[in-house]
Amino acid sequence: MKKSTKMMFFTMMIIGTMITMSSNSWMSMWMGLEVNMMSFIPLIYKMKNNKSAESSMIYFLTQSMSSMLMLFSISMNSMMENKMMILLTISLMIKMGAAPFQMWFTEMMNKMSWMNCLILMTWQKMAPMFICQMSQEKFLMSSALSTMVGAIGGLNQTSTRKIMAFSSINHMGWMMMCTTFNNNLWIMYLLIYSTLMMPLAWMFNEKMIMHSSQMMTNMKSMTEKMNITCMMMSMGGMPPMLGFLPKWMAINSMMESNMYMIMIMMIMMSIITLFYYMRITMSTMMIYEVQKKWMMINQNKNMYTSIMLTMNLLLMTMMMFF
């Protein structure tokens, strides 16, 4: 795919999300979601192999089904409002890949490149999350189930893309919980999650890490291993890393709303996600070097170090403000 064509589809994908977020009617929101979907499919299929063809077909069929449900729920708005909101909720959960409709999401993640996985985990969540907030529905059951599925599903995985997919489902549960408080807390959560996910996906893409066993061989120096460990701990929400800040804000909002039982359950599920992050990084840290000293390449060390210093400075600044 040419760079100009790729840029055109990428711009259309952003425009589709902006149409949804700036609309004041259900039909225009649906139109924005359709523009976003039809722009993302060519970006998936740019590699032109069997895996990208299969993942683009999975995405098209799943999103088309959820769009039909959404359109049907919009058309029956004036007749029966309760059933309309149930159908709208189901369609949005399918679009986001939230539990119990997460099967297509994990399969797609395992067949795509890291850059497409990054878009699917971050930007593609924005428009459905906005509609979730606008619908004024309580997604308590789905958010609790998403945190549980995201935590337990990643325990027996060796593929790093599937591990990140289940981690995204877990974070999605926290974001859906943030939408129930009728404020912009979920936007802050999504921004911080995207900030943490970008350098991690970039590093996985550069080092061509598709399985957890490759982290021991593809990470050549101790600096790279320390960087990936800090990023993983931050993704798991270990304090005082940056990833703990959005969960702290969500926990504070849940305590103010007296939602103690669901809060305890979600914290326990987050500890499980932190466990399988630590399981990957500890095995990587045990081996100090896998290459001869005179064969080591130092070209990317300064870049990784600057990324981590920037993230730590951002963490300290945000902690001082809060």
From TrEMBL:
GO BP annotations listed: mitochondrial electron transport, NADH to ubiquinone
EC number(s) on file: 7.1.1.2
Enzyme category, top tier: translocase
Annotated GO MF terms: NADH dehydrogenase (ubiquinone) activity
Subcellular location: Mitochondrion inner membrane
Entry membrane topology: Multi-pass membrane protein
Listed Pfam families: Proton_antipo_M
Catalysed conversion reaction: a ubiquinone + NADH + 5 H(+)(in) = a ubiquinol + NAD(+) + 4 H(+)(out)
Function text: Core subunit of the mitochondrial membrane respiratory chain NADH dehydrogenase (Complex I) that is believed to belong to the minimal assembly required for catalysis. Complex I functions in the transfer of electrons from NADH to the respiratory chain. The immediate electron acceptor for the enzyme is believed to be ubiquinone. Core subunit of the mitochondrial membrane respiratory chain NADH dehydrogenase (Complex I) which catalyzes electron transfer from NADH through the respiratory chain, using ubiquinone as an electron acceptor. Essential for the catalytic activity and assembly of complex I.
Protein name: NADH-ubiquinone oxidoreductase chain 2
Native source species: Orius sauteri
Name of encoding gene: ND2
